[in-house]
Design brief:
transmembrane; MetI-like fold; elongated; mainly alpha
Amino acid sequence: MRRNVLWGLVFTSPAIIGLLWFTGYPVLGNTLCIVLWSVPLGIVVALGLALLLNLGVGGRSVHRTVFHLPTIVPAVASGVLWMYIFDPQYGLLNDALAKIGVTGPGRLSEPAWAKPALIVMSAWGSAT
């Protein structure tokens, strides 16, 4: 029995190594990066919103709306909203930056900015 298992592992090892190298490593590396940033950021955002809801500051209805919006808005609508915010030409974020004289990057089209944009999107969605 042990000999059959050993030969089975010998013959399947190229496929196992290929699967781990070409699929497992890239997926776990990107996932680990996003998790290490989005989980603490989501906790900070949720804690900040919860503190704002409990303080006697003005605009509590706005804070409540921002806090409960990720649970109400479907995932597709949320994705369209973030694409509208992060659009390189007509996005709200780059438009606001252009008003103060800063040229913003294409956050969803440039590889260096795609991961931080995904981290912000997931932190907003996990704040509730």
